[in-house]
TrEMBL record:
Residues 31-194, 198-403 form the FAD-dependent oxidoreductase 2 FAD-binding domain. Its cofactor is FAD. It comes from the Eukaryota. One of its GO terms (molecular function) is oxidoreductase activity. This is FAD-dependent oxidoreductase 2 FAD-binding domain-containing protein. It comes from Diacronema lutheri. Keywords: FAD, Flavoprotein, Oxidoreductase, Signal.
Length: 436
């Protein structure tokens, strides 16, 4: 293994730490990025946009994308793009503080407020960056745990937000001769280390249970936009048991209290259209992950529950929608679920369960994405973003904020690393000239 050269900047963007054995290149600023998930890809693109550096992107998997490929989140931002383009309207003046308050509440006192405020502040720049990759963003929804409508996803995307962004970022890097990608390479060591904690973990409350492999350890997420658009969660008897728009940790806790630890997510066609997820659901249906039913009786038969119990539950939910008073505490009803009123109305059903989404603890960073040593000072030439970092979100991460973190801090790490690498090479050249 080659040691990390003094003038090579290392950017950690995944849980694997270290350096890869790379062929020595010309005397040119070089950034080594360890991890090819959403944060790593964002870092690579931003590094190249910032300075004429050479980028070495290393990932232990045979293909890029990391665990980001399995997620199905939106992007929560302060600015809503108009028609998916660069023109935008900003949320009301109190939107910034409300966004921060929502994130701090989810963090339960464990979040780094300075980093969270930077995350929210920089979110206003994310739609333009996404648009520069050729990805159009659609209308915003109010995701679980958020008090305002602020979560976006790509327009007419066949795949999840994460997969759509990964594909666009890979296309950008593929066209750049100054980027080398090393897949199937496991990093085993770094010369410098920093203490961290993996105490916090993040659960997705609604991961899909594959009927053909219910015990499979790896599961796809249900887009939380479905809950935001009006989906309901039912227990084995056909009754609701939780506010579907509550913070993810609360929904996961309620689901884990069920005897089977699984529930059924029920959503009708208008809600799917409102969320812009028709293509995504169709792809899930082709994989046998989604069942379709026409009308309330068909839903009851599919679930194996008493039709009268289900009808009573749906009617009670309709009353809650009409009056805005829900025994389970729900206060926002984006669309009306009216299966009992329309016998032929199309509905979609998925078996869901909480699943571990990622870690929220790890390396400590500052607002420039520099890795901090145990004594608090930054480690020279070492930057981090993504799941390898800790403290940004605290105890839990709001929907849309994980993707946001990858884009904001991934780009910050790439930008700062590129500038540091350029400055280091310039210093070396000046020193050599002086010695001559």
């Amino acid at each position: 293994m080659m040691p990390v050269a003094n003038r090579v900047v290392v950017c950690l963007v995944a849980v694997a730490l270290g350096v890869a054995e790379l062929a020595p290149g010309p005397r040119r600023p070089r950034v080594v990025i360890v991890g090819g998930g959403l944060a790593g890809l964002s870092a690579a693109v931003e590094a190249r946009r910032t300075s004429d550096v050479h980028v070495e992107l290393v990932d232990k998997e045979p293909c890029l994308g990391g665990s980001s490929r399995l997620a199905c989140d939106g992007i929560s931002v302060l600015v809503a793009p108009a028609d998916g383009g660069l023109s935008a309207r900003i949320w009301p003046a109190d939107g910034y503080e409300l966004f921060v308050e929502d994130a701090l509440r989810a963090g339960a006192g464990l979040a780094d407020e300075a980093l969270l405020r930077m995350l929210v502040r920089q979110s206003a720049n994310v739609p333009a960056f996404v648009h520069s990759l050729g990805v159009r963003l659609g209308a915003a929804v109010r995701a679980p745990g958020h008090c305002r409508t602020r979560t976006l996803r790509p327009v007419e995307a066949v795949h999840s937000t994460e997969r759509t962004l990964i594909s666009a970022l890979k296309d950008a890097l593929r066209a750049d001769p100054s980027v080398r990608v090393h897949t199937g390479v496991r990093v085993v060591d770094l010369l410098l280390r920093s203490d961290g904690s993996l105490a916090q973990v993040h659960f997705s409350p609604v991961a899909i249970v594959d009927p053909s492999a219910p015990d499979a350890p790896c599961k796809l997420e249900v887009p939380l936009d479905l809950c935001a658009a009006g989906a309901v969660l039912l227990d084995s008897s056909g009754r609701r048991f939780v506010d579907e728009l509550a913070p993810c940790a609360k929904v996961a806790e309620a689901m884990l209290a069920l005897p089977s630890r699984t529930a059924t997510l029920l959503v009708d066609a208008p809600a799917v259209q409102a969320a812009g997820l028709a293509n995504v659901l169709r792809s899930y249906e082709e994989r046998g992950l989604v069942r379709r039913a026409l009308g309330l009786d068909a839903v009851a038969r599919t679930l194996g529950v008493d039709p009268l119990v289900l009808e009573t539950e749906i009617e009670a939910y309709a009353v809650a929608q009409a009056w805005g008073v829900d025994p389970l505490g729900k206060t926002a009803f984006p669309t009306r679920l009216e299966l009992s009123a329309e016998p032929g109305r199309e509905a979609f059903l998925m078996s869901v369960t909480p699943a571990l989404r990622g870690t929220l603890g790890g390396l400590r960073i500052d607002e420039d994405a520099r890795v901090l040593a145990a004594r608090g000072g930054p480690i020279v030439g070492l930057f981090a973003a993504g799941e390898v970092c800790g403290g940004v979100h605290g105890a839990d991460c709001l929907p849309g904020n994980a993707v946001l973190e990858c884009l904001v801090f991934g780009r910050t790490a790439g930008r700062t690393a590129a500038l540091a690498a350029r400055a280091a090479v310039a210093f070396d050249r000046a020193t050599d000239d002086g010695e001559r």
